[in-house]
Amino acid sequence: MSVITYRQALRDTLRAEMHRDENVFLLGEEIGVFEGSYKITEGLLKEFGERRVRDTPIAEEGFVGAAVGAAMLGLRPVVELMTINFSLIAIDQIINHAAKIYGMFGGQTSVPMVIRTPGGGGQQLGATHSQNIELFYSFIPGLKVLAPSTPAEAASMLRAAIRDDDPVLFLENLGLYNTKGEVPDGDDTVAEIGRAAVTREGTDITLIGYSRMAMVASQVAEKLAEEGISVEVVDLRSLRPLDRETIVESVRKTGCAVVAEDDWLTYGIGAEIAASIQEGAFDWLDAPVRRVAMAEVPMPYAKPLETAALPSPESLITAVHETLRAVGRRVG
Amino acid sequence: MKGKNTTMTEIHMPRLSDTMEEGVISSWQKQVGDKVSPGDVLVEIETDKAVMEYEAYEEGFLVKQSVKEGDTVPIGAVIGVLGASPDAAPEESGGAAPAPAEPAEAPAAEAAEAAEPAEAPAPAEPATAEAGAPRTRTSPLARRLAKEYGLDIDQIEGSGPKGRVVRADIEAAAKQRETRPAAAQPAPAAQPAFDDGRDSEEVAINNVRKVIARRLVQSKQEVPHFYLRRTIDAEALKAFRVQVNEQLASTGGKVSVNDLIVKAVATVLRRHPAVNSSWVDDKLLRHNRINVGIAVAVDTGLVVPVLHDTDKTPLSEIARRSRELAGKARDGKLKPQEMSGGTFSVSNLGMLGVDSFAAVINPPEAAILAVGAMRQVPVVRDGEIVARHTIALELSVDHRAIDGAVGAEFLKDLAEVLEEPMRIIL
C-alpha cells in the first residue's frame, strides 16, 4: 500500500494500461514533449514513443474525431482534453459521433475511447476555464461519465474506462490532482461502472457528492462526527449510469439528504439526485432534500469572489445543521 | 430505483347514505387470503339505515381485515386491504385511525413548496399561500410512521419548520402512548346498575334501532301531530280485490288490500297536492312527485321502503314492488335509495288484528295513514242494521304543513275512492 497523489495514480494507471494493451494510445495537446499541462503524462512519451503518445494541434474537434475513428477501427485511444471547457469545441464529435455510432449503425462497431479531462474552479482561471459542465455529457445516452474522488478510485475507474467498449468521459478535477490517498501496490482492480459507493456509513443524514465534492463531503462528515452527528457519505462515482439504488437505500436509512455539487444548481446533477430520492424514498423522507451548489454566476476571477462562488465545506455544514434541526435534532 | 411497488388497495368505509357518519362492520364476506373479483360482496356494513352489502371494485386478494366484525369506524377509515397476491403483506396498519376520505390537498401550498428558490443553496422555507382549511404539515416519513403506529397525525404537534410533524414527533408520541397505555384507552363503560328489583338485562341494540329512536323522538317533539279518523265501507274494495286477482291469476300476480290502499292514496294525493308536502326549516315544500312509503316491521326495527312515483305505477307493479321491497327489508338488503325520497307513508297493522291506531309521522313527510284490520261489523245502512266489512283509517298530520280541513278533504276523497274502488285505477 502506498500513499500517492491522484495525479500519480492516473499516471501509473495510464502506464500500466499501455503496457498491458498495445492498442491503448494517448493523444492530446501538450501531453508529449511538455508532459501534460497538469503533468499526468509525465515520462510517457520517453517510455512509449511518439507513436503511442501523440501531441496534437490545438484542434479539439479534429483530434477527438480522430480518436473516434481510431476507436472504431479497434484501437483504444485515451484523449486528454486540457480542461472540460475545451470539450465544447469537440462536443459534436462526442455527442453526435462517439455516443451515437454504436446504436445508429446497429452495433457494427463500438467506440472504445476515453476522454480524460479535468473540471473544477478555484484556480483563478477565469469564467471560461473554470466550469463544471459534466452535466452536458451525463445527459447523453451512449456515453458513460465517471467522476472518481480518490487516488485509488481514479486508478480502478480509469482501468475500467480504458477496458470498457463504450466511450467514457472521465472527469478529473483540478482541485483533486494533488490530493493523496492510499492505493494498493500492484493493484489491478477494475471498478464496476455505474456503482456509487458509500464511503462512510452513518445514520443521521446522507451527504451525496461526486468528484471534488465527494472529498469535501468526507471532510465535512469527519468534522460533524466531532459534534456527534453521524453522516453517511455517498460518492456517486458514476454520473451515467447513475446508481439510484445506492442513493435511495441510504436515504431510506437516514431519512434526509444533502446533495453537494460543484456545478450550478439549476438543472444540475443535484436536481437529478433529488428527483431520484423523492421517487425512490418519498415515504422515508423526514425533510426536504437540500442542494448545495455553485453560485449561479460565471466564475469570477477575483480570488475572494471565486471562493465565495464555490460551494464550501461551511455551506455544506450549514445545510446539514439546518436539515437536522428540521427533523428535531438540536445541532449547531 | 423506484420505491417498492405496492399494488395494495385500501378499502375505505363508504358513505352509503346521506345521513351516514359511521358504519359497523356487520360481517366480512371475504376472509384474508380470499380471491376477490369486481362485484363480489366483500363485507356487510350496517349503516344508520340498514345492513348493506359492499362490493369490490377491483380484482385482487383480501390481505387484511383492518376492522373486526362488530366494530364501528367513521366514513373513510381503512377497513381492509386488497393486494395483488394472497400473501402480500400490507404495509399500513392503521385500521381504526380515521383516514379522512382523501381531503382535497391544498394545491397552492403544494406548488409553492415545490418551487423552492433555485438560486439560494440554503433556501428559506417559502411563505406558502395557505388556501382553505389548514393542512397539517408533515414529512412523508412522519406520515408513514404515524400510520404504522396507528397515530392520528393531526393530533400530534410538529416540532419542525412551521410546525411540520417529523419522525421525532411521531416517535415521541408513540413512546408516550406506550408509557401511559391506561390514559390512551378509554375506560370500559361501567355496567349500568339494573339492580332495582326488576331483574333487567341490557339488550344489544344496533344502529337502525338507535336511528329509529332518535327520529321518533324528533318527530314527536318537533312535529305538531293531529289525527283524523274515518271508517270506510270495504265491501266494494274486498270484491274489487277478488276481481283484480282473478284477472291477474294468469300472470301470477296478486294484489293485497294494502296495495289497493297505497295506490288509492297516490291517486288521491294527486288531487290534494297540499298533503304531499314537507315542513322543513320554516319552509313549506310541495312535492311534485308522489312517493309513498310503506312501513315494514323487521327484526332490527322498522323501515320504510319507498315506491317512487306511486301515482304513475300500475297497481300490479305496486303489488309486485311492495312484496319485493318488504322482502329486502326483512333481509336487511334495502339500498339507501330504496328508503329515501318518500312524500307520504302508509302503515298497516290490520293483519295483526289492530282495529285502529295513530301512527307517528315519518319526517320530513307531512302525513301518515294508519290502516286497521278489515272487520265485519254491524252498521246502520238505510235504517237497517247490516253486517258490513269496514276498515278504520287514521291520518296523522303535521299541522305546520297541513290544516285540519285540508287533511279532512283528503281523507274524505280517499274514503270515497276506496268505497268506489274502480276509481283507484282510473
UniProtKB/TrEMBL annotation, chain A:
UniProt-recorded Gene Ontology molecular function terms: magnesium ion binding; oxidoreductase activity
SMART domains: Transket_pyr
Protein name (Swiss-Prot/TrEMBL): Alpha-ketoacid dehydrogenase subunit beta
Native organism taxonomy: Bacteria, Bacillati, Actinomycetota, Actinomycetes, Streptosporangiales
Cofactor(s) for this UniProt protein: thiamine diphosphate
Pfam families: Transket_pyr, Transketolase_C
Keyword NAD: no
Keyword Thylakoid among UniProt keywords: no
Domain Transketolase-like pyrimidine-binding: from-to ranges: 4-179
Superkingdom of source: Bacteria
Keywords in alphabetical order: Oxidoreductase, Thiamine pyrophosphate
